[in-house]
Write a structure and sequence with these properties.
alpha+beta; 149 residues; single chain; Nucleotidyltransferase, domain 5; 4 strands; globular
Length: 149
């Protein structure tokens, strides 16, 4: 294996994602960048090469006790959605920036959806609960068989 740093791997993943994800005027790209202490979000029109809306935890009016946690990501997600809706942007393409869709990145995108971005997208949480209930039923049947023997 090649000796590559985590930042180089993330950059390579981000380049791979960017080949597939493009923002345009009708549906711009919501790009996310996270550092250890802060999280940043931008809505970008790639055709014109312009940032339409941005929000980050470094802004004075958004700054809280910590900018690098889930609460801060939720605040930024809500703020970026409000600013985008004020500009007339209702649909965006999410660009996770080479990060795993987990933790702060997921919290930001979920908060943006809850605040009104991409209203027609289905939320996957109810689907995740259904397989758990099915998995519990076979376990009950196995315990009944043991009691009968």
């Amino acid at each position: 294996m090649a000796n590559t740093s985590r930042a180089e791997v993330r950059t390579a993943i981000h380049q791979r994602i960017r080949r597939k994800v493009r923002g345009n005027t009708e549906r711009p790209r919501l790009a996310i960048y996270r550092s250890l202490n802060h999280i940043y979000a931008q809505v970008i029109d790639d055709r014109n090469g312009k940032t339409l809306v941005s929000a980050s935890t470094t802004e004075k009016d958004v700054r809280g006790p910590s900018g690098g946690n889930l609460d801060a990501a939720r605040r930024i997600g809500q703020l970026i959605a409000e600013r985008a809706l004020a500009q007339g942007i209702e649909q965006v393409v999410f660009d996770r920036g080479g990060y795993l869709y987990h933790g702060r990145v997921k919290a930001l995108t979920d908060a943006a959806r809850a605040a009104g971005l991409n209203k027609n997208e289905a939320v996957a949480e109810p689907e995740a609960e259904a397989p758990k209930k099915e998995a519990e039923k076979p376990a009950e049947k196995k315990s009944k068989k043991k009691k009968q023997e």
